[in-house]
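Morning, I've got a small favour to ask if you have a moment. It would help a lot if you went through both lines with me. I owe you a coffee for this, so here goes:
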Amino acid sequence: MNPKVSVIVPVYGAEAFLPTCISSLRAQTLRDIELIFVCDGSPDHSLAILRKVEPLDSRIRVIAFEENQGVSAARKNSRRAAQARL
């Protein structure tokens, strides 16, 4: 897959909003995208939600940190993982 767009979603304490976010992104009409969710040691069930939906859509990738690393580390790691290039 060579996506044209990489959508990076930092996730921390987002359990209540995550299903809506995932559904909205999956419903986009652009098919040449990758959806990268970076779960930054979230203390809730966010990672479980992501792991459940990950096998359902090949555009979804999950990066998970065991401990909170902060927003800078999440951005840096997700940019490295992104496949879409200018």
Summary: Helices lie at 18-26, 46-53, 71-81.
